[in-house]
Structures are given as C-alpha cells and as structure tokens.
C-alpha cells in the first residue's frame, strides 16, 4: 500500500538534510511502528508524506497504491486515503468541530466523485463514531480542539480518522501527553479501525503504546534512515536497553 | 527646550488655518446649501461655529495621521457609477422588520413601511425640522458637541450643520421587530449627509439594522441616548461596492444599567472612517463596539479606519472593543481606540482588541491603542496583533481533505468569530456569517 523508497528531504529554508534515504513498505492490513531517538527524522517523515510546507524532497519516492504522493497537494493526499494524526492537534477557534469534519469529509468525497453526505446523514455518522470514543455532543459542537484536554485532542484525532476512513493512517507520537487511561482509549479506537484494507504507521518514542496497538513490524530510525527492521520484539529491546545500545550495534 | 520651541511653531499655523480664513473650509461650505433648520437651528449654528473654530481635519492632526482627510475635505466627491453594485442580495430582507428607505440620504416614503411600530415613535428629521420644537432637540447636535470637548471631530460638526434627513426614533417599549434602514443610490455624484437621533427611554429596547449604499460620498452621524436599563443593538452591514468614500460617527450616551452594542460589517470601500464615541455615564452600564472589515484592494484602493473613544465616568461599567480586519492585495486598515477612565469610575472593566489578518505582504494595518486611567480600582486591557494565516492550522485543515481556498475561508471566519459574537441574535449572526462566507469564497 505505502511504499517509501530512498526518500531524501531537507528543510526548505536551510541547508539541512533531515531524511537521508528512508525506505520502507507497509502492506494493507498491517501495523508498522517507527521508533527512534529525538531528531532522527520520524516526524519529518510524516510531514513529508502528508505534504506539509517547509520541506523539500531532494531524492526518492513515496507512493500510495502506486500513486505518487509527493506530487499531490495535502488535500489530494487526504482524498487518496492518507491520514496523519498530529502530535499536536491544532486549535481552530471559531470553526465548529462538526462543521470542520463535515467540510473535510464532503470535500474528500467530492474529489473522489462520491455523493456528499447531507447534514442529517453526517450527524448520524458522527454520533455513532463519537460514542465509541467517548466524545459527546458538546465536544462535537465546540470549536476544533479549543479548550480540549490533551486526551480529548487525541481522541478527536481518532474520531476524524474513524469518520474519514482513510486507507493509510500515520500516527505521529499519538501517545505523547497521554495518561495510561487516555492512551488505552485512543489505542482501542485505533484497534477498532484495523482492517484488511487499511494500514497504520505508528510513530513513537516508547514501547508502551505498542503494548496497546500491537505492531506487525517495527522499524528503528536514526539520523534520517531506517537502520533496523524487525518484529515486535525490537520494540521491547529498545525499552530494555535504550537506543544507544541498539544503534551502536547497527553501526 | 529647543524641541519644544519647534513643536510650538508647528502647531501655531494649524490653529491659524483653522479659523475663518481656512480657504479649504470656505470652499467646502460654499458648495453646501446649509439648511436653517427649525428645532435644530441653534444646534446647526453652534456646529458651524465649532467647525469654523477647528477647521477641516488635517493630515497632521493626532487622529488623522493614518487617514488622509483630503477626500473628505474636497468640496465635492468624484462621481461613482450607479451600476457598481455587489453581487450579493441585500441582507435581512427575509425577516420581520419595519423598513425605512433612504435614497441618497433622503427618506423615500413610497418605498418604506408606515411609520408605525408599537412602543416606538418614528419621525424624520426632514419633516420634524419644519417645527420649532421636537423631543430630539435636546439631543440633536448635543451629544456630538459634548464629544468635541476632548477631541475635535470636524466631520461630525459639519454633519450637524448640513444634514437634512435621518430618523428620529424614540422608544418607550420593547418592539416586536427591529427597524431596518435601507440606503439606496440614485444620483451618481450625490454628497450625502444624514443624521439619526435615537432615544431609548428607561427599560426600552431596540435593534436597528442598517444596510445598503448611499451617495458618492457619505457623512452620517447617529446620536444615541440610552436611559436607565435601556438596550440598544445597532447592526450595520455594508455591501461590496458600498460607500466608496464615507465618514460616519456614532455618539452615544449610556445611562445606568443600559446596554449599548454595535456591530459593523464593512466590505470594500475606497476610503472609510468610522468613529464611535461613547460616554458611559451611569453605573453598571455596558458598551460593546465591534467591527468586521474585509478589504480587497484588487480593484482599487481600500482604506478603512475605525476610531473609537470610550469614556467611563461611572462605577462598575463594562466596555468592549473588538475590531477585526482582513486585508488583501495592499488593503490598508487603521484602528485607533481609546479607553478613558475618569476619576471615580471604579471597578471599570475595559477591554479592547484590534487584530488584522494580512493575506499578503502588501497589505498594512496600523493600530493605536490608548488607555488613560484616573481611577485606581479598575481592570483594563488591550491587545493588538497583526499576522498572516497560521500555516500550521492551514496544513491541519488541508491534511483532512479541505481544499486550500476553503481552508483559508474557514480560517478567516475563525479569525472574525470574536467580532461576530458581538451580534447577540443568533439568526442575525448566521445571516452575516453566511454573507461573509460568500464574499470570502468569491475573493479566495
């Protein structure tokens, strides 16, 4: 489903190379994790894949079902089935959560040539999806992420994922700032979305999220590259010995 | 010392020019056929004397530094073709209201509803001024004159002297529907002066809606006198192409426990200046002034100036100024806002925010917040920001599939939300918000 090949990227404004040849492949139905120390390029990978400004791809490719992601605008990537759950979901005062999500869903559907949902159909959908994530009508009515706690913001990200039904979900440090209960709720939400035609790329520092969202494959990233790939046991190794050991071993 | 001397010398000629010898003022007045007035006669005479004393505004005047008054000072305006109408249908037409139509500043009885609304006495300056007395005589030109004591406002004095029409509204009850004043144009070079007097008796309530376009140049004054516990809501929405060149001033006096709220939507206009001068004179009163301004200088210059002066002279009063400007293609926005807290106006709660969203690097916002406080137990705050679209938020919306143009519209509406919140009535707020949405979508 997602194929990243030899991806090189630098900051647009500075001569600083961040990704130095990332290659990985996530097949449909699988959950892959990317772990790595601070500054290794994990979040940059997610931004480059989703099309955030400020990065310049200098080499390599990234495709989703064979479509060149890097040629698309961020909204086109979303319509193609890519979703990035933000590490820091953005507050947008004055835009209702529900209005935002309906605008997003219908824009995606329109771009794909699908029928747009009516207000009533959308309301039914979002109520149903919200219930599972413990998101009540009040949260839905409030402006996007404004006044939400850390846990509520992350749950809201998962709600968006549930409503938009993307094919490829990237979770950028979704566990940061969450207590154990909130993390479990988020993980349950993600697990409920696991499907044969959907894949996940879970970016995290710590193994603990992976206790709840069990990965099929774990990649270790360092200095802009994937340096090691293995099974879930790789995450445990990181937890026990830290990155330094693992990286020295690779070097 | 040398600096002081130089300053003195610069000021002196201004004062001299402000006298009768001011040729610009003479030229300005020569082309006006000033009415003698009936009950307003004395007020008009006083206003003319005030105007002669201060002269026309000059670029060096403290409150005219950011807005060149030349276009307001010119004897006649340049004509503006009548065809220049915005693509939007007029606002508020679908709701229950008492409609009063003014064409180039003159009341059009045939196009208006009967002047009957329960709890309200609706009169017209044009007809009432044939008489020697009228209830509004105590207000006409008087609130305006009182405001001149602190800062000279020559355009307002000119209005009091020159206006021939406007509404004289006295409210004693709680009418079931708003009054809607619609302005229309007929003469492409009309230089329009209109003057409203609005008096709310104790406990009375009124919502006044004002829309449409008037004149090639317009000058309006609204004097609003709110008695104890009265509630007045003024919503002005100006359409695209409206008031290419306009000056307006609202002068309000707010008594104890009364509520004054105004919201102005301005969309386009070559040169506009709105002044709001509010005196809070009774305890526990509230005054909110808000504006949403959208300027796209794509098809010509855009300059919009909001100048506000709120005086607190009673205890436990609240004032709020919320001004938001969205500027594009070299549009220019100005905000000059002052909160004056008089000695003894304890427990004052004064708030002021002015913000500009610049959609490109050519646009400009100049803000001048002023606080002057002579009481020791007050809470006053002000903030002013100028910024571009938040790229992180923009990316967030786009990453969810919202197209870029639509995402920008959503973010602009988000930026304007605080100002729009000042429209209390939800259905009015939604109608205005939809209008903004349509304008923004067209100008995306």
Describe this structure in words.
The complex is a heterodimer of chains A (251) and B (444). Chain A has one domain: P-loop containing nucleotide triphosphate hydrolases (Rossmann fold, 3-Layer(aba) Sandwich). In chain A, 41% of the residues lie in helices and 28% in strands. Chain A has nine helices and twelve strands. In chain A, strand 11 and strand 12 form a beta hairpin. By secondary structure, chain B is of the alpha/beta class. Chain B has ten helices and 19 strands. In chain B, strands 2-1-5-7-9-11-13-15-17-19 form a ten-stranded mixed sheet, with helices on one face. The model of chain B is unreliable at 1-19 (pLDDT under 50). At the A-B interface, helix 2, strand 7 and helix 3 of A face helix 8 and helix 9 of B.
Topology:
The complex is a heterodimer of chains A (251) and B (444).
Chain A: E1 2-11, E2 17-26, E3 31-35, H1 42-50, E4 55-64, E5 67-68, H2 74-80, E6 82-85, E7 92-96, H3 97-111, H4 119-132, H5 137-141, E8 143-144, H6 150-164, E9 168-172, H7 180-193, E10 199-204, H8 208-212, E11 217-222, E12 225-230, H9 233-250
Helix pairs in contact in A: 2-3, 6-7
Chain B: H1 2-17, H2 23-30, H3 41-54, H4 70-73, E1 98-103, E2 106-107, E3 120-124, H5 125-128, H6 142-147, H7 154-162, E4 167-171, E5 179-184, E6 191-200, E7 205-212, E8 217-226, E9 231-238, E10 245-254, E11 259-267, E12 271-280, E13 286-296, E14 303-312, E15 318-328, E16 332-341, E17 349-358, E18 364-373, E19 379-387, H8 391-399, H9 404-420, H10 426-442
Helix pairs in contact in B: 3-7, 8-9, 9-10
Protein name (chain B): Fe-S cluster assembly protein SufD
GO biological process, one term (chain B): iron-sulfur cluster assembly
Domain SUF system FeS cluster assembly SufBD core (chain B): 188-415
**CATH topology heading of chain A:** Rossmann fold
For the record, the CATH architecture of chain A stands as 3-Layer(aba) Sandwich
Percent range for β-strand residues of chain B: 35-45%
Largest interface: A-B, 32 and 24 residues
Q: How many structural domains are formed by the residues of chain A?
A: 1
Number of helices of chain A: 9
Residues in helices of chain A, as a percent range: 40-55%
What are the secondary-structure elements of chain A, in order, as H or E? EEEHEEHEEHHHEHEHEHEEH
Q: What average pLDDT do the residues of chain A reach?
A: 92
Unreliable stretches covering 5 or more consecutive residues of chain A: none
How many E-type strands of chain A?
Answer: 12
The description of the largest β-sheet of chain A is: 6 strands, mixed
GO molecular function (chain A): ATP binding; ATP hydrolysis activity
Keywords (chain A): ATP-binding, Nucleotide-binding
Family (chain A): Belongs to the ABC transporter superfamily. Ycf16 family.
InterPro entries (chain A): AAA+_ATPase, ABC_transporter-like_ATP-bd, ABC_transporter-like_CS, FeS-cluster_ATPase_SufC, P-loop_NTPase
């Amino acid at each position: 489903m997602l194929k990243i090949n030899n991806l090189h990227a630098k900051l647009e404004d500075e001569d600083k190379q961040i990704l130095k040849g990332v290659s990985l492949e996530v097949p449909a139905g699988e959950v892959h994790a990317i772990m790595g120390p601070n500054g290794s390029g994990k979040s940059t990978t997610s931004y480059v894949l989703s099309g955030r400004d400020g990065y310049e791809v200098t080499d390599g490719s990234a495709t989703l079902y064979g479509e060149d992601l890097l040629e698309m605008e961020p909204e086109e990537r979303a319509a193609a089935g890519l979703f990035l759950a933000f590490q820091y979901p953005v507050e947008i005062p004055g835009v209702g959560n529900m209005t935002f999500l309906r605008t997003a869903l219908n824009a995606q559907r329109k771009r794909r040539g699908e029928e747009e949902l009516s207000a009533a159909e959308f309301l039914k959908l979002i109520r149903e999806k919200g219930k599972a994530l413990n998101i009540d009508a009040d949260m839905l009515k409030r402006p996007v992420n404004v006044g939400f706690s850390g846990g509520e913001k992350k749950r809201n990200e998962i709600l968006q994922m549930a409503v938009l039904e993307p094919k490829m979900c990237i979770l950028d440090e979704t566990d940061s700032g969450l207590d154990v209960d909130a993390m479990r709720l988020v993980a349950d939400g993600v697990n409920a979305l696991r499907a044969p035609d959907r894949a996940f790329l879970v970016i995290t520092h710590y193994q603990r999220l992976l206790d709840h969202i069990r990965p099929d494959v774990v990649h270790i990233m360092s200095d802009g590259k994937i340096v090691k790939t293995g099974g879930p046991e790789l995450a445990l190794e990181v937890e026990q010995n830290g990155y330094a050991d693992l990286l020295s071993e690779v070097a | 010392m040398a600096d002081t001397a130089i300053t003195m010398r610069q000021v002196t000629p201004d004062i001299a020019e402000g006298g009768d010898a001011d040729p610009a003022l003479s030229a300005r007045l020569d082309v006006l056929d000033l009415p003698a007035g009936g009950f307003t006669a004395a007020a008009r005479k006083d206003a003319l004397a005030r105007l002669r004393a201060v002269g026309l505004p000059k670029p060096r005047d403290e409150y005219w530094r950011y807005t060149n008054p030349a276009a307001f000072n010119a004897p006649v305006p340049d004509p503006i073709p009548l065809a220049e109408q915005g693509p939007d249908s007029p606002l508020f037409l679908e709701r229950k209201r008492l409609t009063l139509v003014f064409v180039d500043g003159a009341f059009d009885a045939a196009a208006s509803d009967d002047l009957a609304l329960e709890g309200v006495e609706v009169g017209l300056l044009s007809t009432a001024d044939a008489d020697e007395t009228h209830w509004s005589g105590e207000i006409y030109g008087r609130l305006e004159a009182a405001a001149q004591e602190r800062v000279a406002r020559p355009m307002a004095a000119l209005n009091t002297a020159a206006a021939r029409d406007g509404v004289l509204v006295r409210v004693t009850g709680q009418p079931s529907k708003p009054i809607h004043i619609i302005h229309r144009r007929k003469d492409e070079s009309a230089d329009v002066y209109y003057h409203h007097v609005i008096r709310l008796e104790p406990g009375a309530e009124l919502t006044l809606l004002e829309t449409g376009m008037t004149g090639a140049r317009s000058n309006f004054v609204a004097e609003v006198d709110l008695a104890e516990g009265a509630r007045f809501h003024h919503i002005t929405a100006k359409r695209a192409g409206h008031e290419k060149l306009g000056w307006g001033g609202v002068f309000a006096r707010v008594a104890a426990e009364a509520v004054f709220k105004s919201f102005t939507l301005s969309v386009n206009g070559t040169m506009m200046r709105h002044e709001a001068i509010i005196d809070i004179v009774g305890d526990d009163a509230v005054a909110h002034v808000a504006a949403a301004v959208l300027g796209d200088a794509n098809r010509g210059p855009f300059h919009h100036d909001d100048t506000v002066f709120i005086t607190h002279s009673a205890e436990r009063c609240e004032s709020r100024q919320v001004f938001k400007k969205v500027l594009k293609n070299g549009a220019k926005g100005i905000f000059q806002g002052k909160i004056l807290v008089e000695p003894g106006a304890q427990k004052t709660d004064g708030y002021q925010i002015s913000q500009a969203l610049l959609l490109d690097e050519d646009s400009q916002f100049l803000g001048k917040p002023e606080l002057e406080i002579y009481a020791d137990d007050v809470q006053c705050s002000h903030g002013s920001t100028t910024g571009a679209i938040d790229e992180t938020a923009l990316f967030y919306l786009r990453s969810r599939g919202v197209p870029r143009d639509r995402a920008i519209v959503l973010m602009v509406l988000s930026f304007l939300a605080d100002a729009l919140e000042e429209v209390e009535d939800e259905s009015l707020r939604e109608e205005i918000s939809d209008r903004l949405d349509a304008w923004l979508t067209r100008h995306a």
